């Protein structure tokens, strides 16, 4: 299991402020954490952070990518009575928004608010039967006029994120909080590189970890990061939809929290390189690391851009099953996180030039 330093870092990273396009706080935390446990750290011009572990060869270059933007909101207006309208950053299901607390970042600092709507006592019977849509919600910051709201510093274009403190459940086995999608993937990349360096693990390649930005709004950071790194293999670290909650059929989401990391066999943005996929499965079996196979019919990951970089890049997605993604509160197993780290390290130890070339041999 992770030591106290890693657990404290996980808490700080998950609680940091960083919706799509506003990831700088999270990026700075990562850069500071990795400066002493990687060979080099540097940003790209979109805001992603790169951290490097050099092995015995310059190539192959292995890209470990996990995005650090979280789903959030952006203020779209202030009405005469001081209530705020908002748009979403990333995909939200309207029904998970109501009555949730948020933090808005303004020029004067952070201010709290709550997503609200017309109280149920005043709804007609017909209105009660309808699903409330985001356009009928607002953020209440306690103001009674536009002037009072503006005095807090809030403006159109200011970002907001869920207010959701990080905590551990079940004697530290399960983590609960926000932004697991996908800072837990970035955490896996960081812990993998940290172990490579601190344990002096031999590996026949150069590993580039990248904490990418703006994934939730179009996989944008993955495109610039892949161009910068020019990888020979891409390993995207992500969250998977944990299907072990009521109402989900096994064929809809086959993975379970606590049963191991997952390997994505298909999604709408990428069909993985098949020899690389089989290599991951075989490595997990030989190393006795639990691995679940997954498939997501809708949605995509940074792999959608990375596998199309330049002339193409063999890419897979390794994930941590997570309950309730794209909401204020998610849950995941720290054993699954540890197994993801273990698998990534075993892969890196085996990704030499001959092996990597075999992935694209015809």
Q: Specify the CATH architecture of the largest domain.
A: 3-Layer(aba) Sandwich
Number of helical segments with 4 or more residues = 10
Overall structural domain count: 2
SSE string, helices as H and strands as E: HHEEEEEEEHEHEEEHEHEEHEHEEHH
Number of strands: 17
Structural class: alpha+beta
- Compute the separation of the termini in Å: 41 Å
CATH class of the largest domain: Alpha Beta
The chain-level mean pLDDT equals: 96
> How much is the radius of gyration in Å?
21 Å
CATH topology label of the largest domain: Aminopeptidase
Strand content: 25-35%
Helical amount: 25-40%
Can you say what the CATH homologous superfamily of the largest domain is? Answer: Zn peptidases
Instruction: Name the poorly predicted regions.
Output: none
Largest sheet: 11 strands, mixed
Basic shape = globular
Report on this model:
With 362 residues, the protein is an alpha+beta fold. It has two domains: 4-70 and 178-358, Zn peptidases (Aminopeptidase, 3-Layer(aba) Sandwich); 73-162, Elongation Factor Tu (Ef-tu), domain 3 (Beta Barrel), CATH 2.40.30. It has helices at residues 4-15, 24-34, 125-128, 146-151, 180-198, 220-229, 274-287, 303-306, 334-350, 353-358, and strands at 40-43, 49-54, 61-67, 72-78, 84-89, 101-106, 109-116, 138-140, 159-162, 167-169, 174-177, 206-212, 233-241, 261-264, 291-294, 315-323, 330-333. The strands form two sheets. Strands 1, 2, 3, 10, 11, 12, 13, 14, 15, 16 and 17 form an eleven-stranded mixed β-sheet that branches. It is globular and about 70 Å long. The protein starts with a helix and ends with a helix.
């Amino acid at each position: 299991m992770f030591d106290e330093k890693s657990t404290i870092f996980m808490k700080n990273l998950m609680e940091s402020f960083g919706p799509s396009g506003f990831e700088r706080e999270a990026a700075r935390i990562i850069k500071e954490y990795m400066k002493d446990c990687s060979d080099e750290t540097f940003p790209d011009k979109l805001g992603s952070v790169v951290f490097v572990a050099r092995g015995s060869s310059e190539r192959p270059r292995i890209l470990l990518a996990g995005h650090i933007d979280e789903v959030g909101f952006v203020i779209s207006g202030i009405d005469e009575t001081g209530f705020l309208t908002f748009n979403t950053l990333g995909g939200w299901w309207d029904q998970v928004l109501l009555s949730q607390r948020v933090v808005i970042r303004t020029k004067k600092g952070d201010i709290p608010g709550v997503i609200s709507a017309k109280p149920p006592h005043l709804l007609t019977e017909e209105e009660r039967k309808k699903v409330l849509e985001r356009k009928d919600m607002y953020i209440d910051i306690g103001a009674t006029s536009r002037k009072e709201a503006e005095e807090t510093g809030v403006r159109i274009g200011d970002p907001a994120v869920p207010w959701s403190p990080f905590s551990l459940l079940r004697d530290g086995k399960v983590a609960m909080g926000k932004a697991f999608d996908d800072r837990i993937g970035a955490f896996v990349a960081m812990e993998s590189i940290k172990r490579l360096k601190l344990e002096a693990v031999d590996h026949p390649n150069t590993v580039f970890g990248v904490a990418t930005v703006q994934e939730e709004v179009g996989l944008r950071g993955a495109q610039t990061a892949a161009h910068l790194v020019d990888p020979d293999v891409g390993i995207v670290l992500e969250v998977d939809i944990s299907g072990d909650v009521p109402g989900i059929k096994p064929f809809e989401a086959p993975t379970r929290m606590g049963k191991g990391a997952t390997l994505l066999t298909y999604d709408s943005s990428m069909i993985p390189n098949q020899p690389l996929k089989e290599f991951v499965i075989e490595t997990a079996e030989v190393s006795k690391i639990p691995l679940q196979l997954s498939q997501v019919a809708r949605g995509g990951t940074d792999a959608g851009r990375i596998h199309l970089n330049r002339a193409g890049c063999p890419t897979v997605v390794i994930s941590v099953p997570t309950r309730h993604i794209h909401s204020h509160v998610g849950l995941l197993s720290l054993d699954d996180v540890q197994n993801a780290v273990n698998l990534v390290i075993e892969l890196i130890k085996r990704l030499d030039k001959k092996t990597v070339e075999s992935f694209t041999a015809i």
